[in-house]
Request: fold
Amino acid sequence: MPTYDYKCNECNHTFELYQHITENPVKKCPACGKLKAGRIIGSGGAVIFKGSGFYQTDYRSEEYKSKAKKETEPSKTETKTVKEK
Reply:
């Protein structure tokens, strides 16, 4: 459901309402109680990100992930240990 911005033409109070898209606009101002409120053009339906993270790398292909893993794994020559005498 979208959030709509409202402004009272009587007291200039602005407020937001979370309404179903088919609901009629509210006319009564919650601050002054007069029937002078109307919808105003807001910022629009922006995407709201909730959760631990939304990153470009979250949706990488399996092929990309396997290549990246190979690049970060140490090569066999790097893992040889030097024997002490």
The mean pLDDT is 79.
